[in-house]
Amino acid sequence: MEYRILGPLEARRGGTAIDIRGRRQLTVLAILLVDANRVVPTDHLVEAVWGRRPPTTSRSQIHICVSSLRRQLFAGDDLIDTRAPGYRLRVAEEELDLHVFQARVAAARTAVQDADPLRAVAELRAALSLWHGRALAGIGGDAVRALAARYDEQRLAVHEECLELELAHGPATAHDLAGELLALVAAHPRRERLLALLMTALYRAGRQAEALDEYHKARLRFVGELGIEPGSGLDTLYQRILAHDPALAGPAAPPPEPVRAARTADRAPRRLPADVADFTGRRDSLTGLLTALERTSGTAVPTAVVSGRGGVGKTTLAVHAAHLLAPRFPDGQLFARLSGPDGAQNPHEVLGRFLRAYGLGERDIPDGTEERAETYRDLMADRRALVILDDALTESQVFPLLPGTSRCRVIITSRRPLPGLPAAVRLRLAPFTERSALELGGRIAGHARIEADHAAAVALNETCGYLPLALRLAAARLAAHPHWTVADLVARLGAGSAWLAEMEAQTGVDQAYAGLSDDAGRLFRLLPLVEAADFPAWVGAPLLDVDLCRAEALFDELADMDLLVARPGPGGTRYWVPGWILGYARRLQAPEHDQARRKSHERLLGALLYLSEMAHRRRGGHDLRQAGNGASRWELPGPAADLITADPAGWYGRERPWVLRAVRQATAAGFAEHAWGLAMCTVTFAGLPAPAGRYPDDES
């Protein structure tokens, strides 16, 4: 669980905000959080909800409120104890932003005692970054507002303390601090400490006249509204500014290298890429990722590995999860992409970037990779930081970049599962479901356009392979061309589109193809001949003129490289190639291979005709060869062919759309005998129902 009261009250479970219903429930939760891990008397809760005139049923109503909070907040894990004379909410370390704020402030004051003002400033800035408005904003009641006022006052005092340290020791410039102080003084015009800091900052920024003017405006305000003069401290500072007191000058400028280190060390690095506004689906994956990374058992750094094919949304999921987790890691968020167009990123260079992000100058960064990794682990030892390592190629890239402390968290994305890495959770992302694909298209291109032609939208999803990246690019084209229909875009994709090259580059299809064996590469280039929505493994045998075992092995190789998708089905494994990948395969076909491709096409049609005839005869049809059909056949081995057509109606039910398209395809290619034979075989199956809702009825 995660609770926020330094702003509007908010409770989160697994990174997802919980909608807490009921004004009284919010008030009770606020009081329990303020006194987290301590027993809060029921009478105190009654007074917080109703003031000094509670109803006679107030105590029972408090019990109802607590029961409601238990149901809303804790899924099977009740963290509210009933302890006389009231209730106690158990909150783990760092789950409540108030506790984190107080711990940061305490650490800053320890740093001041240790004569380390820059570390103190960094801690105070981190503490102030936890605030998102007035404490417990939106909750009424005198008791809650009194508590909120107390915490708001603490925040302001800490802010003053931080600015005073920065003015005295750096690292921020007086000009930057003056702008921040002007806003604070405008909001709190009677706080003399803020006025003194503002006057000092303006003076050091070379704005003496403005510093004196701020004093005059404050004096008029104090005298006119309160009838008093400003305190002696402000008056003395005014005189020192008039006299150009040398003691008012800022801290001496440090040498160049330490300047860089000091100016970056005062705040933690925030290097996450931008989150997407239309994040869609992946609810279970996101919950599993957040849950695994919130656990804090053991001493190993909790690590998540998110794997999957290019374009499936690994980086999007990792970045979205990182933004949800970021408030829990105030010491920084780091991001590095470990591969790109030029190949693998060297961890030596990435370590250098990470060390510079935390303020180390070039002279402080070791030359050797192992020494850099040691310095990095030492730097991260006492920090709570989140590290995202995107598109890793090998385990050896990742190991030097892992912090050595369980206080940090690491999310790794890769196209490979990286089994050599110890991981708290492993997620293998699959392409979107149809529901998520339609939702994403609607969010980008408009739900009305997607819903207006559902069949075309499904066809677009099929063409894009249900890959989030491809769907996002396609929907963006629709959004940019409001006069297009979804069907228009599907037609354009079928004819080829310039943005397909962008998608191929981002998903690594060209790299996957380059890594294929010669036979697998040839099979991939021949797949556009199979005009079927999906197909069984035997089709590879006639395409390449090889045995069935070899064909299955080559399809497995293509599936391993994410160039097609294997789908289990009632008749065995079937393979599906997204439309845009088929388009890539078509562009690889060279004119000089046309004759060989025609031979492959003839063998494929011959194998389909051979199986169609077997199913046709088992349904009582006549022998087409005796009827004079002279088409060539490519005969599958007898046991395999018998198994495939053992249920002739079931086989034809699966393959009918392909058989009908093959008739037209054979006619267009000049294989008239094959077209006639395939058409005749359909006669015995004419009464079978068509597959539901997926293909047009072109039986005629």
UniProtKB/TrEMBL annotation:
Give yes or no: UniProt keyword Phosphoprotein.
Answer: no
Q: Which UniProt keywords apply?
A: DNA-binding, Transcription, Transcription regulation
- What residues does the OmpR/PhoB-type domain cover? 1-91
Gene Ontology molecular function, alphabetical: ADP binding; DNA binding
Pfam families found in the cross-reference section:
BTAD, NB-ARC, Trans_reg_C
Q: Which GO terms describe its biological process?
A: phosphorelay signal transduction system; regulation of DNA-templated transcription
Q: Does the keyword Hydrolase apply?
A: no
| Protein family | Belongs to the AfsR/DnrI/RedD regulatory family.
Provide the protein name. DNA-binding SARP family transcriptional activator
UniProt source species: Actinoplanes campanulatus
